[in-house]
Design brief:
The protein has no helices and 35 strands. A hairpin with a 2-residue loop joins strand 25 and strand 26. The strands form nine sheets. Strands 1-2-3-4 form a four-stranded antiparallel β-sheet, with no helix packed on it. Strands 5-6-7-8 form a four-stranded antiparallel β-sheet, with no helix packed on it. It is mostly beta strands and about 325 residues long. The protein starts with 12 loop residues before the first strand and ends with a strand. About 0% of the residues lie in helices and about 55% in strands.
Length: about 325
Amino acid sequence: MAHRLPLAIIVMSILSSCGGPASFRFYDEYGVGFVNKSGRVVIPAEFDDAEDFSDGLALVASDGLGGWIDRRGNIIIPLEYYDAGSFSQRRAMAVPEEDGLAGYLDTRGLWAVEPGFKKAGDFSEGLAAVEYEGGSGYIDRRGRIIIRHEYDFAGPFSQGRAMVVKDGQYGFIDRRGELVVEPEYRFAREFSDGLALVVIEEKGGFIDRKGEVVIPASYDYAASFHDGLALFVRDGKAGYIDRRGREQIAPQWSWAGDFSEGLAPVESDGSLGFINSKGHFAIPPRFDYAEGFRDGRALAKDGDRIVYINKKGQVVWGAEE
């Protein structure tokens, strides 16, 4: 049901950083670089790969090793790590030795938490899920073990809850590590807008933070809430519900995406456009491909061009296919 860009075209994704202007990542035959909103190359395409800016830095990689640059392209943390993650809450996972253990760097490139973990997740709400010799748990930004657990999987915290998996069943714990939702669901997503998607007998529904089912599991497919609305699919058509489970936009689209910044991409008669929260087209369908808005821009394929558009549907940056 999703629309994908042909592999031959340039692939780009919009980036943002705290307190800074948005910029765009681009790929060409030389590698990955960055342009600004005006389309001017700020950082030449000299890296093998790159990730989004966060906490003012972007993870980049060359020759199999990762490091971080600032928005001017200066290398702030050398490309010398065998595995690495983007910064989150001013901490980034890094593995300094091949097949070695992971720790966390601060934005200066100093070890905030020394390497000692078999697995290390991103920080969220002040905690990160880790696996260490003899157990698993959550650490704080200083590396202190705050929660110990015996789950097969533990995800990031969102709205005071973290998803955990035991014997293939999904549940949730609170910040004290106590179970607030027993692992009894076939699948689940993190909390968003106070609700979490769960799957019951192949159907999607939603629970609140206490674990009570507040929107019955009746959807063939459902996604997490964004901008107060959640995408759902019934009988092959996509629509949107509000947090009370009321249909705000009737199922009518053959494909649809999540709302972001007040708009959502949907397919109509083979082309994609953007609707508002009332279900009316804010940008008429004309695209072969479209992603959600971030920082006032959305990636789309307009004829032979890969472009970024604003919320009026106007092309603000483009590249030939």
